[in-house]
Amino acid sequence: MRRLAFLLRPGWIALALVVVAFAYLCFTVLAPWQLGKHNRTSRENRQIEYSLNTDPVPLKTLLPQQDSAAPNAQWRRVTATGHYLPDVQVLARLRVIEGKPAFEVLAPFVVDDGPTVLVDRGYVRPEQGSHVPPIPRPPQEPVTLTARLRDSEAVAPGKDPLSQDGVEQVYSINTEQVAALTKVPLAGSYLQLTEDQPGGLGVIGVPHLDAGPFLSYGIQWISFGIVAPLGLGYFVYSEIRARRREKQPPAAAAQTPEPPQTVEAKLADRYGRRR
């Protein structure tokens, strides 16, 4: 036990606690965080790939009721016939499209015999910093749209809606938040217009099919969580070995054997003694 008493010193205790805490975070927070991002990205890539190779379907098959949402059909192309509410408009601010700042223009769309959905008409570029440019109104007559189904985004924490340049603006496309802001009930998913659609503006493309580095990052955090305790164990083992060597008594000096005498030396020694 005396040999292990050094492990109870404050420095070693602190080091052990740091290593244990780091390994715990690797397995419970950091690795699941990256692996979760990998799973979400892979799921979205599968949905995009499926939507690119599948014909559009009527919107009401996926959103049959006003409170419907279709998270498993994100990016799926749909068609809807109805009319815009042209006097209701909200902008999603601080968006980046093709590497440049943009506003995304949102408007409610009433589907014939179906729900009212939020439509992302596309984007416009800000003027003179962050000012809203003139935005064409959507058509008032009934139209048929082709769009991609999108999941409602999470509300940006600490970012409340604001009114600027006479237009209501939000920081995320969250259908509940926009519904509360406009007093118009909206379905849980929203639509993002494809190219050449009535009321469309700048077209927002689909993301590139790239899984990203999240899987490798997750594996790295798992590896760090394994290596850290092993490294601590190696340092403890090395310290114990070093202390054992310090406590061993010095080895007795080895006696050097005399070199064997030659025959001439033996004869000289014998006859010299007789004389």
UniProtKB/TrEMBL annotation:
GO cellular component, one term: plasma membrane
Alphabetized UniProt keyword annotations: Cell membrane, Membrane, Transmembrane, Transmembrane helix
Pfam families assigned: SURF1
Broad class of the protein's primary localization: membrane
Topology within the bilayer: Multi-pass membrane protein
Segments of this protein annotated with the region Disordered: 246-275
Alphabetical list of PROSITE patterns matching this protein: SURF1
The organism's place on the tree of life at top rank: Bacteria
Keyword Transmembrane helix recorded: yes
Membrane-spanning intervals of the chain: 12-33, 214-237
UniProt-annotated location(s): Cell membrane; Membrane
InterPro entries for the chain: Surf1/Shy1, Surf1/Surf4
Bias (Basic and acidic residues) ranges: 266-275
Family statement: Belongs to the SURF1 family.
Name under which the protein is recorded: SURF1-like protein
